[in-house]
Specification:
The protein is mostly helical and 130 residues long. It has helices at residues 3-14, 19-29, 33-38, 44-62, 68-76, 88-103, 109-128. It has one domain (3-128): Orthogonal Bundle (Globin-like), CATH 1.10.490.10. Helices cover 72% and strands 0% of the residues.
Length: 130
């Protein structure tokens, strides 16, 4: 089984409970006051829904789907729109990996590495649109 398959299955296990997305934002917002402040007036239920689909898009692109939606996401997160700072993507990734570790009962260090490899191209594409 390749890394994209491993991550796809891991994400499926994580998505079984909505707490996965709640916990992600707890970890992510606790990583930086600036990030916490960005979400102060955010509809978090809607944001968690966007996260669910955004992570899936990154995984699907790694599995060979078109990157058009990620390019659109990069554009919306660029300095010209939401102004998501490039250095925040590392914090985002670490929060996601921490959340996977907590929620995937089959988590291993090898699975963490698979996640990192699968996430990298999509995160780079979004960050590079800054």
């Amino acid at each position: 089984m390749n890394n994209t398959d491993l991550v796809f299955q891991s994400y499926g296990r994580c998505c079984r409970k909505d707490d996965f997305f709640v916990d992600f934002y707890e970890f992510f917002m606790s990583s930086s006051d600036a990030i916490r402040n960005r979400f102060a007036q955010t509809d978090m239920e809607a944001q968690r829904h966007l996260l669910r689909h955004g992570v899936m898009q990154i995984i699907l692109v790694a599995r060979g789907m078109s990157d058009r939606k990620l390019r659109d996401l990069g554009e919306s997160h660029s300095r010209h729109k939401y102004d998501i700072q490039p250095e925040w993507y590392g914090l985002w990734e670490e929060a996601l990996l921490k959340t996977v570790r907590v929620h995937d009962p089959e988590y291993t260090p090898q699975l963490r590495q698979a996640w990192k490899e699968v996430l990298k191209p999509g995160i780079d594409l979004i960050r590079d649109a800054y």
